[in-house]
Amino acid sequence: MATPAGAPRTVVGLEIHVQLLTASKMFCGCAVSFGAPPNTLVCPVCLGLPGALPVLNRRAVDLGLRTALALGCRIHPRSQFHRKNYFYPDLPKNYQISQYEYAGHPPLATGGALEIVTEGARRLVRIRRVHLEEDTGRLVHAEGASGSLVDFNRSGVPLMEIVTEPDLRSPAEAREFLTALRRLLQFAEVSSGRMEEGTLRCDANVSLVGDDGVPGIRTEVKNMNSIRAVERALAYEVARQAEARRRGEAVVQETRHWDERRGVTFGSRSKEEAQDYRYFPEPDLVPLEVDEAWLERVRASLPELPAARRDRLMAAFGLGGADADRLTASPAMARFFEETVAAFPDARVVANWLVGEVAAYLNEHGTEIDAITLTPRRLADLLRLIEDGTLSGRLAKEILVAMIKDDLDAVAVVEARGLRQISDEAALGRIVEEVLAAHPGPVADVRAGKDRALGFLVGQVMKATGGRANPEAVNRLLRERVGS
Amino acid sequence: MPETPFETARGLVAAYRAQRTRPSEAVEAALAQVERHEPRVRAFLHLDAERARTEAAAWDRRYAAGEDTPPLAGVPVALKDNLCTRGAPTTCGSRILEGWRPPYDATVVARLRTAGAILLGKTNLDEFAMGSSTENSAFGPTRNPWDLSRVPGGSSGGSAAAVAAGFVPLALGSDTGGSIRLPAGFCGVVGLKPTYGRVSRYGLVAFASSLDQIGPLARDVEDCALLLDAIAGPDPLDTTSARVPPPQARAALGAAPRGLRVGVVTDAFGAGVAPGVAAAIREALRTLEGLGLAIEEVALPTLEAALPAYYLLAPAEASANLARYDGMRYGLRAAGADLVDTYRQTRRRGFGPEVKRRIMLGTYALSAGYYDAYYLRAQKVRTLVARDFERAFARADVVVMPVAPTPAFAIGERAADPLQMYLADVFTIPVNLAGLPGLALPCGFDGGLPVGLQLIGRPFDEATLLRVGHAYQQATDWHRRRPPVA
Amino acid sequence: MIDRDTVEHVARLARLALTEEERERFAEQLGRILEYADRLSALPLDDVPPTSHALPMTNVLRDDAVAPSLPRDEVLAQAPARRDGFFVVPRVFDEG
Question: Which CATH topology does A425-482 take?
Answer without folding.
Answer: Arc Repressor Mutant, subunit A (1.10.10)
